[in-house]
Structure formats: structure tokens, C-alpha cells
Design a protein that fits this description.
Layout: H1 3-15, H2 20-27, H3 31-61, H4 68-79, H5 85-94, E1 136-146, E2 150-159, E3 165-171, H6 177-180, H7 183-187, E4 196-199, H8 203-206, H9 208-217, E5 220-223, H10 233-245, H11 254-270, H12 282-292
Parallel strand pairs: 1-4, 4-5
Antiparallel strand pairs: 1-2, 2-3
Helix pairs in contact: 1-2, 1-3, 4-5
């Protein structure tokens, strides 16, 4: 009989008030095995209690949105504790630490008025696995609703290799400048001859002002198929996490929204460990890739 089966049998027996002798007789196990199992269970409870405190601390600090991988990374990076994913999952389940899951809706696309013809082909073709920084960026604009239904607009650009937000701009309106303020300054300090920027077919990205700016800098332009947000999934994913993690509706002013977003993007780039980045933050992973090259 396996240890787990013994623990379950003895535990259920104690729960319904059976004595050790009765548990042994019914289950055909020795008294020594029964006592050993009870002691092992108590030791395990004490060990779980210490681990639970740390897991709870991380779980509630992240507003009940931390999954087992996020918890494992934080335990290792912040406390020097390496904990098995299965153990974290067991403790979370046992103590009712249910993670809030962000609802995925790939068809919930922000309507953007397109031009009659797209100005760039879909060169990216959903090839999101990139290993060299500053070679493929994903960009888009999303709206942020705050107090009394007011809107702010966030333009963000993500490096697919490092998952770092390399440029962003929070604005009050959807003027053409929304798309390239921040990005233009970032590109001035980079070699753009090997860089591709992928976007949707929104009016900002098909507009001659934007197209010409990229051409002047030597950037290759790529665009999603019309109305297909999955072609630009990396930046859509970032917007989803941002809106899920931040309570934007509680902001009373545009300045509050801007400060909240700026702080979050700093956290996202510098402090948010990601499982698929070797448990590093985007900034750490950029350094890792550059040092390895």
C-alpha cells in the first residue's frame, strides 16, 4: 500500500472518530504503520503551515492572480526557496487559494477604421519565437476606461525576444502622435536596419506619417490580416495583463491613469518574473541574451 493511500485511510478513520485499533482492523494494517502515518501527517502539516504563509503572502500581494509558476518564481527569486510546482498546486488547492483567471476573448477586437488597402504584408506570420533583441517589435493602441467612463489611450511596443515594453505613450486622444511618441525616441538610439515592427491595419499604422517615419529610420513594416488580432497576439496579451492587474476604473483623473500605467510598465519590465524567460524579468532576459551572443 502506498504512503498516500495510508495517509488517506488513517485520516478518514480519524475524521469519523475511529480508534487506532478499529482503523487497523478495518484496513488490515499494523499499529506501527498507523502511528507512523499519523506522525508523518502531523509533520507534513507543520511543514505545510510554514510554506503556506509564504505562498499566501505572494498570492494576496498579487491580488489573488498569481498562478503556481508565478509563486514558484517569486519564492526562488525573493526568498531563495525552490519549491515543486505540484506541491504549490496541492497547498493552493488544499487551502482554497483559487487564482483569478483572466478571461480570454481573442475576438474582442477594438474597432479601428482601416484604409482600403493595407500598406504592408504580414511578414511576421505569427512567428513569435524570436531570440535576438531589437529584431521584431509588436505594437498597438488600446483604450483605458477610468472615472465616469472617460477614456485614455495607451500605445505600447513590445520586443518579442525579451517581452520588454520598449516604448509606450499614454494620451488623452487618438491623434497620430499617439502611435509614434515614445517609439520614435527609442528607435533613434538603435540600429533599425534589422528591425521589423508588426501592427494591425489601424489608421495610425497605415497613415503616411507613420509609414514614412519607419522608412526614414530603415524599419521594415509588417501588418496583421484585417480584423485578425491573433496575428498580433503578443501585444494584445500585454494589454490583457495590464487591464487585469490594474484597477484603472478607480482613477479619477487622466494624470492618475498615466502614473498608474507608468508604474506598472516599470514593474512589468524590471520586477515581473516570467516562466518562459528562464524565470527572469524582461530586462534581465535582455542582458542574458546580449551576453550570450
Amino acid at each position: 500500500m502506498h504512503k498516500e493511500e495510508l495517509i488517506e485511510i488513517v485520516s478518514k478513520g480519524k475524521e469519523i472518530g475511529l480508534t487506532v485499533e478499529q482503523i487497523c482492523k478495518i484496513s488490515h494494517i499494523s499499529r506501527s504503520s498507523c502511528y507512523y502515518t499519523l506522525k508523518h501527517k502531523n509533520d507534513k502539516k507543520q511543514k505545510d503551515a510554514a510554506d503556506l504563509l509564504l505562498i499566501q503572502k505572494i498570492f494576496y500581494k498579487k491580488h489573488k492572480k498569481a498562478g503556481i509558476r508565478t509563486i514558484a518564481m517569486d519564492l526562488q527569486k525573493k526568498y531563495g526557496i525552490v519549491m515543486n510546482l505540484k506541491k504549490i498546486a496541492r497547498i493552493k488547492k488544499q487551502y482554497g487559494l483559487i487564482t483569478k483567471i483572466r478571461k480570454k476573448n481573442p475576438y474582442n477586437v477594438i474597432f479601428k477604421k482601416g484604409l482600403e488597402h493595407r500598406t504592408a504584408p504580414n511578414l511576421l506570420q505569427r512567428q513569435f519565437d524570436v531570440n535576438v533583441p531589437d529584431t521584431v517589435y509588436s505594437t498597438d493602441i488600446s483604450y483605458l476606461i477610468y472615472k465616469s467612463g472617460q477614456r485614455a489611450y495607451l500605445s505600447a511596443t513590445k520586443d518579442l525576444a525579451t517581452r520588454e515594453i520598449v516604448a509606450f505613450n499614454v494620451s488623452r486622444d487618438l491623434s497620430m502622435q499617439t502611435a509614434y511618441i515614445g517609439l520614435e525616441e527609442t528607435l533613434k538610439h538603435k540600429d533599425c536596419s534589422k528591425l521589423m515592427i508588426h501592427s494591425d491595419q489601424g489608421t495610425h499604422y497605415t497613415h503616411p506619417l507613420y509609414v514614412n517615419k519607419l522608412k526614414e529610420l530603415g524599419v521594415t513594416q509588417s501588418m496583421s490580416r484585417k480584423g485578425n488580432c491573433l496575428d498580433n497576439a503578443p501585444i494584445e496579451s500585454f494589454f490583457g495583463h495590464l487591464k487585469d492587474d490594474l484597477d484603472i476604473k478607480s482613477c479619477k483623473t487622466f494624470d492618475e491613469v498615466k502614473t498608474l500605467v507608468e508604474n506598472y510598465i516599470y514593474y512589468y519590465n524590471n520586477e515581473r518574473y516570467q516562466w518562459n524567460l528562464n524565470k527572469m524579468t524582461p530586462v534581465q532576459y535582455r542582458c542574458h541574451l546580449l551576453n550570450a551572443s
